[in-house]
Amino acid sequence: MLKYLFKKSKKEGFIPLFDTMENLFLPQEHYYEFLSREDVKLSLSFLQAYSGSPATFNAYRRDLERFLQWCEKVCNKSLKDIKRTDIEDFIYFCQKPPKSWIGLQNNYRFINKDGSRIPNPEWTPFVAKLPKAAIRKGEKVTLKDFEFSQASMRDAFAILGSFYNYLMQEEYTLMNPVALIRQKSKFIQKQQGINKIRRLTDVQWEYVIDTARDLAEISPDQHQKTLFIMSALYSMYLRISELCASSRWIPQMKHFHKEPDGSWWFTTVGKGNKQRQIAVSDSMLDALKIWRVHLTLSPLPTPADTMPLLPKAKGKGAIKEPSYVRKIVQNCFDHAIENLRNDQLFEEANALMEATVHWLRHTGISDDVKIRPREHVRDDAGHSSSAITDKYINIERKARHQSAKNKVIP
Which domain holds residue 221? Predict the structure, then answer.
């Protein structure tokens, strides 16, 4: 394991507490006046319980790190001394943190230097961001662009509430100060109706998948992988973390498997480290065959086929980096945007500039929920309840708008 080196910085800055999931550790010493070693130790133990899910771990680490930094630098209290009013003050602080707490880009908490891990002096608890389309237009992010969204606020309440429940179970605190906030509505806005689902329009998806097919035909060595990834994200509603390999799961060819009745299924491990099986359509099976033939494999896998679903282009093993898949998807989006503009579909092209990988999952679910039983879509998508799947049903929303469209003002 790498050695960790800490030096007290002469300039004002932050000494992060928690490294990546793979390098999670408890410092032998730390430079905090108000946070006790027990505070840090229990926080670490709490985070380790979520190491089975990278996305959940990162979210919990983010909010817990912010809170502990605030306890030390602003509130000057240990975790066991935090009251209800302190939690409220923390939320107000997150809405408008000092400029020194905000960065203009995501930076790693720790970096490697001379064989050791050292705190990254560029790391900050908060980061200002711009919409994807604005960045692509050349706009530069500034500190004024920082926003603590409603979603961020909900996450903070949920994560800190869960954290203090854990501290109570460990008999470290006697109460949960988050639970004592009776009117969270003064912070969190209640929404009526259906949240907007970030998805591609029918025209955009048609151009995207046609673009992937064209790229694969022109340059198969480079883009057959593109076509398979786009097909899998849309057809099987996969999250990017379910397509890439990780310490908890390596997607392999054998995870496509045939049942005695002739139906094909795909096994994956999703959020919360939950395994699920996804029904594979004939079109997705065709996409798999094309991908495997390109890899000089038999058209369909056997139960003994342990080859990675997405093998590395160079070397052995599976693709692990989500950023690699994001670049592939974004390249396909970029070509589709160009094709839309060539066909004078400027509005569709501009809107596609905002799209991310996750939109493909949303698009697949939204399209299927119109023609498949919602319970089937729910289970394939890995939703915990039908209420989540219902958000993708927009038929009533369209009808509601249609009934209002021709209203007149007397």
Answer: 202-393
